[in-house]
Amino acid sequence: TFSYVTPKIRIEGRDEAADKINEYIAMLDETYYTGNDYGDGSSDGYYGMLEQAEDNFTYVRETGAEFPLEFSCERGADVNRADGHVLSLSFNTYSYAGGAHGFYVTRSYVFDTETGEIVSFNSLSQDMAALRSHLLQRMKELVETDEYYRDAIGSYVASEDLEKSLAALLRDGSWYLTNDALVIFSDLYEISSYAAGIQSFRFPFEELGSLLDARWIGSAKEGSGAFTIQDTGSVENGSVPILDMLSVDDGAAQGLPKPEYKAR
User: Where are the strands (E) in 114-252, listed by range?
Assistant: First the structure.
């Protein structure tokens, strides 16, 4: 089995920016499907997986060996944040090609919704040295003092290698923005066992303060109210003022209905 979800981005009044983001996502799709290197993203690709599966099947048929023949690869997408400044997406891929368990990997991409350009880790601050130093120090403190991180990471990475291993996480693809925090995460097996899984560190904006450029920090909300998601067809035209909007469709690869989410 081989499947993936392709988010489709629309930004009200910013068609050019939306087109740039969709082009980047299309490149990630092409890489995932073909397994070729188009500059970002990675995968064995559909035909690579199929070739491996056929080789295994032929071997079993000719030798009578017994082992699982299931091959699968699937990729989903999460929207971590979507507003007038930032679109933060995470692509989560799971693959199984035999053995005791499958393998999963997450890659995140943050886009500037005003320009459509991808945001690099090194563009998060005017003083990247200070930001990196703060993040690294806080991660080390958590591993040394927090029971969860101490068990998951401290028992897996030697103390003399800890700083170097954590510093390696401060890179493109291994971070994303939410409405109120910067999140740094590892690859599977990188700093912990398979059972412990991917490790992540959350840094609230209020902790980072001026270390993070103000444009990447979510706008403060005042007042009270509620957020709901509903089909746009059920909203009377003009009854809800649109302050800002970014919508994401999913399910296209499976032929499912395309829900539309709009922040109002």
Answer: 175-177, 181-185, 200-204, 246-249
The pair of structure tokens assigned to 140 is 């080390």
Q: φ, ψ for residue 170 (rounded to 5)?
A: -85, 80
Three-state DSSP at 262 gives coil
SS3 13: coil
* Cα 87 to Cα 84: distance, rounded to the nearest angstrom: 8
**Of 88, 153, 158, residue with least CA distance to 121:** 88
Contacts of residue 109, defined as CB under 8 A and 6 or more positions apart, other chains included, come to 24, 28, 88, 89, 90, 91, 118, 173
| pLDDT, tens digit (0-9, with 9 covering 90-100), for 89-110 | 999 999 988 778 889 999 999 9
Question: Residue 90: beta bridge partners?
Answer: 78, 108
Phi, psi of 204 (to 5 degrees): -60, 150
Q: What is the pLDDT of residue 249?
A: 62
φ and ψ at residue 234, rounded to 5 degrees:
-90, 0
d(CA 17, CA 23): 10
The helix/strand/coil state of 48 is helix
Structure tokens at 185: 């995460």
CA 260 – CA 250 distance, rounded (Å): 9
pTM score of the predicted model:
0.80
